[in-house]
Amino acid sequence: MNLRLCFEHKAGVNIDEATVFRHYAENYLNGFNVKWAGSISIPHHDTKTSPMEPLWQYIIPDASTAARDYLIEYLDRNPMAGYFVHVYEVDSGTGDQKIH
């Protein structure tokens, strides 16, 4: 399965320079096989604050079930300062399904 991670900034936080955000996020996600995917808009009903877009995104290609479960546990145990992290299972046949 492929996973999409979308980063929604909290009020008062906004890194609008891609290289700066990439440095921050890739350190936070160290150990996961992430690939930078630029920015994306997600449905407003999935966001936690007022609509803020676009959101930075990463893809984890060919993730195992164990990797997905560990990612969710990691995000719950170690929230990223200043950001909400939305996770989707990517399925080109039925669309993305939000799992976190």
Main features:
100 residues, alpha+beta
Could you characterize what this model shows?
The chain has helices at 18-28, 65-77, and strands at residues 2-9, 35-40, 55-60, 83-90, 97-98. It is built from two helices and five strands. β4 (83-90) and β5 form a beta hairpin. It has a five-stranded antiparallel sheet, covered by helices on one side. It starts with a strand and ends with a strand. 24% of the residues lie in helices and 30% in strands.
Rough outline: globular
For the record, give the distance between the C-alpha atoms at the N and C termini, rounded to a whole number: 15 Å
**Secondary structure: number of strands:** 5
What value does the Rg take, in angstroms? 13 Å
One letter per element, helices H and strands E, the order comes to: EHEEHEE
Strand content: 25-35%
Proportion of residues in helical segments: 10-25%
